[in-house]
What does this fold into?
Amino acid sequence: MTEEEKTAQFQQRIDAGEKIEPLDWMPDGYKQTLFRQISQHAHSEIIGMQPEGNWLLRAPSLRAKKILMAKIQDEAGHGLYLYSAAETFGIDRAEMIDMLHSGQAKYSSIFNYPALTWADMGAIGWLVDGAAIVNQTMLAKCSYGPYSRAMVRICKEEGFHQRQGYEIIAKMASGTPAQKEMAQDSLNRWWEPSLMMFGPHDADSPHTQNSMKWKIKVESNDTLRQRFIDRTVEQAHHIGLTIPDKNLKYNKETMHWEISPINWDEFWNVVKGNGPCNHQRLSHHKKYHQEGQWVRDCARAFEVNQMKESNAVKSN
Amino acid sequence: MNTKDALINYCLRLADNSMISGQRLAEWNSCGPYLEEDIALSNMALDFFGQAETMYEYASQLINNNKSADDLAFRRSEREYFNCLLAEQPNGDFAFTMMKQFLFSTYAKFLYEALSASNDETLKGFAERSLKEVKYHFRHSSEWIIRFGNGTDESLKRAQFALDELWRFTDDLFCMNATDEELISTGITVSSDSIAAKWNLTVKEIMQASHLTIPEKFNVITGGYSGIHSEHLGHLLCEMQYLQRAYPDAKW
Ligand SMILES: [Fe+2]
Ligand SMILES: [Fe+2]
Ligand SMILES: [Fe+2]
It folds into this structure.
């Protein structure tokens, strides 16, 4: 079969809604796009542990501490599944971590903002995990089997995270004046970054066209963003918080909430590395990865030593 | 001391041991040597927080709910905390943390085995449930100690350093005071001597398998169970109790 015939047959399978598995033939572009996307998703789960970890030691109750700890642990687990899904393209986790450290691989820009108050533990769960669910529910339908299955598994947990985050911020919004202020301040800071999580408008999104053709994405950035806005505005109003957008209004005809234009300069600025925590997040990851080197060396040496010993026993 | 007060103190001791151990392990979040180990460390921290919650709740009931479990965790000061000195020591490197975990979980394993026969039903149930968890902590940490000792020169050196530093805090685990006296006489707990004997045997065994030398006893420090701590505890509590102390009227 020629390359073109293979490509045509591949596209037929995609169009018929079949899942593509690691051993199947696939075009290079499909492979590269998915590897980039899945490994970046994995890195996002891992880097995302940092802002929440910032409050783990200061969680204000036993229950809150357990929930936050379990949530961060879930995110580490998501990272693990996703690294495995990305490894189906023949690149191992250690190499992916090198790509993260060299700046070749990115992670979600949302984690380049600081978690300044306990209310941010609410806002992150509510908004960031909330946006992730909208995106990942769509990705669960994607054409690549391992990614799609990882998303199905992960989405259930993201649902818990979103509800737990909302509960934190709802409690604060009905708490003391200081708590209310923290809750509103947190929404003010996280609202626009969370809208940017869906990526640029479809017209400005370099990968959207191919991704849609290959059913890596089955809905556009703007469609997903609008779904998130409609949900979140209602949730904010329900607990007496104000969406920080003077132009926010409900359009009765479209039945959607409309917002001000998003500041995409800010988005690209953070993507390029100029956000408030880009440097901090990456250097934290590098530092502890380096500090763990002797432990990984020890574990490897131990295995080798064990193997030598058991071989010596056998040959005796 | 009457039995009820002794039991309250004892619950707080168990709760504080778990709470402080959990808090220290939680410091490892996103700092582990690799992802699987990060997850294992947070698993153990979660076990500890669960154990602490159960014991704070029991203590809270015993003091007629005048103080909630959260009050007990977040509104007591360093002189009112009854955890062992070992638990509050800073983490150090991964070998240091694992050595702490190993020395503590060996103790917790034998203690909870003994408490599984307590004639206090709540304590008995707690010990039975927690035993499963600390057995895993013991297995996890002892496997690491053996790996350190049979891995590289560097891992052996780091593990030996940790043992030398931490050994001075191990007598503290077995110190008894009026609380123990009362609870031993009523069959609620056992003498620490029996726990210490088993602990010594197991520790020796694992250290031997790891080519590690148990140091001479030097500058031994005790006092945790009587509320006399190292300077480290105050800083840990400062961070842990920050929100409850800064916003005393708030509910979270
Ligand atoms: Fe996640
Ligand atoms: Fe995610
Ligand atoms: Fe999540």
